[in-house]
Every structure is written in structure tokens, then in C-alpha cells.
Design a protein that fits this description.
By secondary structure, this protein is of the alpha+beta class. Helices cover 18% and strands 40% of the residues. It is built from 5 helices and 12 strands. The chain has a 12-stranded antiparallel β-sheet. Strand 6 and strand 7 form a beta hairpin. The protein is globular, with a radius of gyration of 16 Å.
Length: 213
């Protein structure tokens, strides 16, 4: 996996295994304006701020069409873990300030500040998309609500599209498009909301052991 694809993997949190049919196949997206746009952003903010802990399966779809799957663990603020299924050898852990990517086969670790990735938009203590990001587009397609945003501070190239589903505005997937136009998707399935997590899941020093939870 190239360094660019690795960055996309952690920046995008692309699609998880057997994700629902893509919204683009169900209906043509309609860009929301005025009051509808304000309400769409408010729904997305409420949905993201309601998340405390999530656990489930993910499927990552890379720009070249390759796929990788595994388990994810998310705890706001700032913590995330992606355990890739074999034959992939990647482990990604975010401890609140740093995103670390561990190649368990090569025994190498790359670190990136969380604030320099699109993940910072959805892992904050309090999420206000309009304030924290530059909103490029809010749109609907059937039961899907999509919010496309760019880093307001300019620390991250490209853009992220958050995709919410249904009346409960559930976060189901997100796409990241890098500066070259390459798209990575992460989709979530079998999502549950545990009451607590083992703290070691999000400790960078513990990722070296590569123990699966």
C-alpha cells in the first residue's frame, strides 16, 4: 500500500463490508438551499454529537477499486481504531491527538496529527460542521443526506462527504477525495453502541502488540 493510499485509508475511513446500495444508484442527489440546507446541517450535527461509542464492521474501497475490511471502534472525542482483516497487515489507532498507522508485517509506524486529517471533523468534542469546516454542499438523494466539507484551516487537502441514512440520520459511510481527485470510501455495517471500551484499544503504545480485541 503506497503512502498516499495509507493516508487515504486513515483520512477517509472508507466503505465497510457489504455496505448498503450506494445512494447514487437510488436517486439523483438534490442540492439543498436556504432553510432546507440549514435543517440538513442541523440534523447532521445532532447525529454526530449523539455518538459516544460505536463498534462494527468496515469496508474500505480504494481509488483503484481494491477493498479491505475489518473491525472499527470509535469513541468521541478523538478516538478511533481500525483493525484490518488478513491478508491486510494494517492497524490504525487514533488516541485523541495523533493518528498512527502500524504495518504489522513490516513493523513500521507512521504518525499524523489528528487535526491534519478529515477525521478531526467527526471526532471533535462538540461538532458544528458549519463552524469547524467549509461546507461545499448539502444534498439529499432518497433517504440519504450528504454533507461535503473541506478543512477550514487548510491543513488537509481534498474533501470529505459524510453520508447519513434514514429518519434517524445514521452515519453509514464517508468518501474522501484527495487533491488528485482520487476517491476512497468507508462504509459501516453491523454497528452497535457499547457502554464502554477497554482503554488500551486507543493507546498507541499498545498497538505494537497487535492484539486483537
Amino acid at each position: 500500500m503506497t503512502q498516499m493510499n495509507r493516508r487515504l485509508a486513515l483520512l477517509g475511513l472508507s466503505a465497510l463490508v457489504l455496505a448498503p446500495t450506494a445512494y447514487a444508484q437510488q436517486a439523483t442527489p438534490v442540492v439543498l438551499e436556504g432553510a432546507a440546507r440549514v435543517e440538513g446541517l442541523a440534523r447532521a450535527n445532532r447525529a454526530l454529537n449523539a455518538i459516544q461509542r460505536l463498534q462494527g464492521r468496515f469496508m474500505q474501497t480504494s481509488p483503484g477499486g481494491g477493498r479491505a475490511s475489518g473491525m472499527f471502534y470509535l469513541q468521541r472525542p478523538g478516538r478511533l481504531r481500525f483493525e484490518y482483516d488478513p491478508p491486510a497487515t494494517m492497524l490504525i489507532v487514533t488516541d485523541g491527538s495523533v493518528v498512527a498507522m502500524r504495518d504489522t508485517e513490516l513493523r513500521t509506524t507512521e504518525r499524523t496529527p489528528l487535526r491534519s486529517t478529515p477525521l478531526n471533523i467527526i471526532l471533535g468534542q462538540t461538532i458544528d460542521l458549519e463552524r469547524n469546516a467549509r461546507i461545499l454542499r448539502v444534498s439529499r438523494a432518497g433517504p440519504w443526506l450528504m454533507v461535503t466539507a473541506r478543512d477550514r484551516a487548510g491543513q488537509t487537502d481534498g474533501q470529505i462527504t459524510l453520508q447519513f441514512f434514514g429518519s434517524q440520520t445514521e452515519l453509514r459511510s464517508w468518501d474522501v477525495i484527495d487533491a488528485t481527485g482520487a476517491r476512497t470510501r468507508i462504509s459501516l455495517t453491523n454497528v452497535t453502541q457499547p457502554a464502554s471500551f477497554d482503554r488500551s484499544l486507543f493507546r498507541l503504545e499498545d498497538m505494537l502488540s497487535n492484539r486483537r480485541r
